[in-house]
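pasting for the record
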Amino acid sequence: MKAKLASRVLSGDTIAAAKLISGIADEAPGAFEEMSHIYPHTGKAYIVGVTGSPGAGKSTLTSNLIGHFRKELMTIGVIAIDPTSAFTGGALLGDRIRMQQHGEDKDVFIRSLATRGLQGGLAKATIETIHIMDAMGKDIILVETVGSGQIEIDITRVADTTLFVMTPEAGDAIQMMKAGILEATDIFVINKADRGNADIIQTDLQTMLSMRHWLPDEWQPSIIFTEAIYDKGTAELALEISRHREHLTVTGEMQKRKKLRLRLELMETVEGLIKDSIAGIDHGKYLDKLIDELLKGKINPQAAAQQLVKRLASDLGRVNNNP
């Protein structure tokens, strides 16, 4: 690729950005080399995660936020993480279809990513896609997750502000307690608030939040009512996002979250490289041999792991001694 795509991405070329994102997702040769030219131009965009249970109205709410931020002349990137098709392995692009009213806007770039079976509601290429949209100059990047209930916490590790969208009748409060969402969410959004029991969900949330010990300068999650289908409550939600952003900046929490994101990305990259290296030892035969020994009970997983580490270190040593 020789950085041809990267230079076009930096100029805001959406076609080049789409090609690079596909290359990253497919682990195409040269794609990660291109990313080395992208990274120096990142770190400016504000990342908002939108998560919650299926059917809560996340896509409609995201579309409303796009419209609101565009009125403020902000440029927008949207990552819609779709569940993978069990038959084709491709993404079910429902989220992007719902946002198609913004598709003709040159300052809005929407991209769907398939989870490809990963747990936690995040696609493998999500962080790299955030970097690409950031380097394109997008002011706000909205990341909408699959919506798989109790495992929707990973988004908090990549977002500056995390929204958890729920509905009055879905029993989300119980799910939140089980999933630890209470500690991970910055803004709770009770969508479809025109339906009954919205006030009950609000009371339950307030009760649970009051049971937690808050530090003096710690952000206490807020609760916003919306009716996404009628675009009601969008302005109030956008204002709360802005208020949370200001809080992160003033308290220094923004920098802490960025450092945590970089740590996550580094460790996941190292983990991926190690796994690929292990799988490549003797073209996979060494790993197969250890698995066969595990199957026959000749070795335990701890001992097998130690053997893998020693073999990997030995192979890396030979490479370093023979440049």
